[in-house]
Amino acid sequence: MTETLSPELLARYADARVPRYTSYPTAPHFSTEVGEADYRYWLASLPATDASLYLHVPFCRAMCWYCGCHTTVAAREAPVLRYLECLRAEMELVARYRRDLLLIRHVHFGGGTPTLVPPGHMKLVMQELRNRFRVADEAEIAIEIDPRVLTPEMAATLGSCGFNRASLGVQSFDLAVQQAIKRVQSFEETETAVRLLRANGVRSINFDLIYGLPRQSVQSCRDSIEQALKLRPDRFAVFGYAHVPSFKPHQRKIDGTLLPDSEMRFDQSRAIAGALVSAGYVEIGLDHFALPEDALARAAETGRLHRNFQGYTTDEAEVLIGLGASSIGRMPQGFVQNEVRISEYERLVRECRLPIARGYRFAGDDRLRGAIIERLMCDHRVDLSDLCRDFDADTAQFLASAPLEPFIADGLVEKDGACIKIKSHARPLVRSIAAAFDAHLSDAERHSRAV
């Protein structure tokens, strides 16, 4: 008989506040102890290696009430163009160090709404990027898109600039839900965006969906999936809404009484997963789905799946260069984050300074714990003996320090020697189980619900 996650276990674990583990340690542990001088040294000491670029464009036409991103509303073009000048200047600052030794295999434009950039200026950004960095011929070049503001001219520009993957924000096709989060987006708008992108050579399409939104129900989730499947995207990312109005004041406009409880959120997430799997998609990690022939599905099948700030990825590079306000980079030595405030970011770049505001320097067993958490998040299993050997750590001592007993007793985790496996019915709780290896986790931190 197939095991299921009982209501009792769901009630016990679902409301826990745990990180999404797109990094380890997580961003709340970054501090001003790491700054520009550290980043300069880390860049200068890089060997020849593969690397990735993340470019943040923190502007939108309107603020969606559910949004948890670093973004601001730009009603005029002038602030966007001013920001782009600084973004290009930051590329030059970073490229002074190791541009000839870094081969860029993944480029991701996030936001905000990167396609608010005027098409001609997008071409300038891409020209600058290719002038300053060595971009592999087969590089994945991806961008996040709000279908409501994608123009035919921008779609053509993306194709001519070499973009080959696009992530479209959909969230839900239910009008009542859209009105409750102030993001009304018709199916026809999304369909038009997909058609424009594919016609211009941007053939790999991702859809972002959210469950746990106000006025959302299991049936509305199923209806949204039914509509989305008509467009047959290559991948879906399905996230649980994180309601943190203390950190994102605009979320206070959402009526908290309309939010589903933990059991309803779980039912919604499983209804979406069931519908996608029935439609032929492979469930990957915690919250991603891909067609079997997609590179993400192949990476998951072969144990080469990874997780970074964009979620699950095929990107194996240890070096991630973050460009733009609030962007986060990763070096072999640790993390760095740019200044969040756009005005301060621009001031620092104009002074020819790397705009680092804070970061984290790896210490102790951080890298080992990060590797364990990543494998659990990606594979739902990990062999501690292999990883401990790689990091020259004592397997028995490390295993004894992880509080896994409650998960084992509740039938969520199996332990065979140093091998840890999350049972299939417990996979929705993978973040809570991974947190057993988080030496920095504090009850005082604010994270999203486990489910």
Molecular structure report:
The protein has 451 residues and is of the alpha/beta class. Helix content is 36%, strand content 22%. The protein contains 16 helices and 19 strands. The chain has helices spanning 7-13, 36-44, 78-98, 119-132, 152-160, 175-180, 187-199, 218-229, 262-278, 295-301, 342-350, 366-379, 384-390, 395-401, 405-409, 430-434; strands spanning 49-57, 59-60, 72-73, 102-111, 134-145, 165-171, 204-211, 235-240, 282-284, 288-290, 306-308, 311-313, 319-323, 328-331, 334-338, 356-361, 381-383, 413-416, 419-422. Strands 9-10-8-7-6-5-4-1-13 form a nine-stranded mixed sheet, sandwiched between helices. Helix 3 (78-98) runs parallel beside helix 4 (119-132), helix 3 packs across helix 11 and helix 8 (218-229) packs parallel to helix 9 (262-278). The chain is globular and about 60 Å long.
Quick structural gist:
It is globular and about 60 Å long.
